[in-house]
Amino acid sequence: MSHRRPPATLLASLTAVFAISTAGCGRHAEPGPSPSPTLPPTSATSTAPVDPQQADRAAVTAVYEQFWRLVWTLDRVSAPQRRVVLAPAAVDPALGRAVAAAEVHQREGITLYGQIVPHPTAITFPEANRAVITDCQDAHAAGQADARTGRHKTVGVARSPVKATAVRSTDGAWRIAEATYTGGTC
């Protein structure tokens, strides 16, 4: 087993930059006690405005994490379904690059194992509909394996710097447009 970064094919294929689609996962309010008839009712909800940039930051973080989870499953998805599976989290060029990488893996008998663990360290908004993500990704337990035998061919590193770009799509959802391993460590 080689203990180095995945080969250029994987790195180039993952050079692409997630809105978690977990409908119905919200908390449901439990009915509370009725207010006392002698005391005026009090409001338990805050009337403070929601910071739009904080909401965008949370959405960008979520879509970035979703992107990596989905990319890591593309080798196990049929070729015609790969774009469909990744589309909720990515747009071109990231979408096309990840799908192309899965096709190369399939031709070369490679599958991905393990899981990438993103650790975004900064998210900035240089434009209203564009976010830049700086990540110190953990891939120490992930890499490429022989698709037939499952034997590991490569293993990632624990601290790999990634720069990614997310864009707000016309439907209002954030999606990853680019993700690039920048080299070195973080």
> How large is the radius of gyration?
20 Å
Largest sheet: 4 strands, antiparallel
| Widest sheet, order of strands | 2-3-5-6
CATH topology: Nuclear Transport Factor 2, Chain: A
**Low-pLDDT ranges:** 1-43
Which CATH architecture would you pick? Roll
What is the ordering of alpha helices and beta strands?
A: HHHHEEEEEE
CATH top level is Alpha Beta
**Helix proportion:** 10-25%
Mean pLDDT: 81
Coarse structural class: alpha+beta
- Terminal CA distance: 24 Å
Question: Strand content of the residues, in percent?
Answer: 15-25%
Structure description:
It is a single chain. The chain is an alpha+beta fold and 186 residues long. It has one domain (8-20, 52-181): Roll (Nuclear Transport Factor 2, Chain: A), CATH 3.10.450. Helix content is 25%, strand content 22%. It is built from 4 helices and 6 strands, in the order H-H-H-H-E-E-E-E-E-E. The strands form 2 sheets. The chain has a 4-stranded antiparallel β-sheet. Strands 1-4 form a two-stranded antiparallel ribbon. A hairpin with a 2-residue loop joins strand 2 and strand 3. The chain is globular, with a radius of gyration of 20 Å. The relative contact order is 0.22.
